[in-house]
Design a protein that fits this description.
It is a single chain. It is built from nine helices and seven strands; from the N terminus they run ααβαβββαβααβαααβ. By secondary structure, the chain is of the alpha/beta class. It has a single domain, classed as Rossmann fold, CATH 3.40.50.150. A seven-stranded mixed beta sheet has the order 3-2-1-4-5-7-6, sandwiched between helices. α2 packs parallel to α3 and α2 packs across α7.
Length: 279
């Protein structure tokens, strides 16, 4: 990606090495697709159930923002029977692998001023806004891509390492991860509990939200996801001073243990509908 001076570039998170997150999470690195898929295995069933309860089904045209390996996009086509999914990401190498009928990969930057792929019955973005510099502005932009009566669904991580969280190596690692990712690539989850208000301010109706916290179980997809994520972000985490290599190794061992190790970050999913046309 060429270096420009557009408003989108001025808003990019720290790191500035091309596509979002490539300072730590590079799509071409060995095992990156597996890391993404571990997260998908932990959350896809929850996400798809919510999308179907909101009406996603035959005839719907959908936009999946930050589609990653395309697990949600493919499930919408396969299980919900939607008509089309435009799956947008800054890097579509995983989406281009044997796309099913109805899946349209779109390599694009949602921060770009000219990003306007059309109007949709469903716009979905999971673990996207938390990585972008202006969640309120992006929420409004995504809401503007809805057809009348369409639904916007966004999901982002909720940090459970509050002062009341149990002390332990996993809690220390999660705190170091959030600070390290914010310092390096701009990830920020502090605003996520306020997401429903952003949807309301974007002009959406029937706004609601729910939280899912997957259990940290030995060998589970979410435990494997965090283990891979911490290994890739080890330098950023230890640079915070909140955890050292020994402490991070202890946290990784805890993820593989059968006993309680701590809370995984949760996922807050919020949604709202664009006003339907007046009769």
């Amino acid at each position: 990606m060429a270096v420009e001076t557009s408003s989108a570039d001025r808003e990019r998170p720290p790191g500035g090495e091309g596509h979002y997150g490539e300072r730590i999470f590079r799509p071409g690195d060995s095992g990156e697709a597996d890391r993404i898929d571990h997260g998908a295995l932990a959350y896809d069933a929850i996400t798809l159930a919510r999308l179907r309860r909101l009406g996603a089904g035959p005839g719907w045209r959908c936009l999946d923002v930050g589609a990653g390996t395309g697990s949600v996009a493919r499930a919408l086509l396969r299980d919900a029977g939607v008509a089309e999914v435009v799956a947008v990401d800054r890097d579509t190498r995983f989406l281009a692998e044997d796309p099913p009928e109805g899946l349209t990969p779109l390599e694009a930057d949602v921060l770009a001023d000219g990003f306007d792929p059309g109007r949709f019955d469903l716009v979905h973005a999971r673990f996207v806004l938390m990585h972008l510099p202006d969640p309120a502005r992006m929420t409004a932009r995504l809401a503007g891509l809805l057809a009348p009566g369409g639904v916007l669904v966004v999901g982002d991580a909720v940090d459970l390492t509050t002062g009341a969280a149990p002390d332990g190596p996993v809690t220390a690692a999660v705190r170091a991860m959030w600070r390290g990712l914010r310092d390096t690539i701009g990830t920020n989850v502090s605003w996520v509990p306020d997401c429903p208000r952003l949807l309301t301010e974007a002009g959406l109706e029937s706004v609601a939200a729910e939280i899912h916290v997957p259990p940290l179980e030995a060998g589970s997809p979410i435990s494997r996801f965090w283990a891979d994520t911490w290994e890739r972000s080890r330098d950023a985490m230890t640079a915070t001073g909140l955890v050292d290599d020994e402490g991070l190794d202890e946290a990784l061992r805890s993820l593989g243990a059968a006993e309680f190790a701590g809370f995984s970050p949760g996922m807050l999913t919020a949604w709202g509908r664009a006003p339907a046309p007046a009769n």
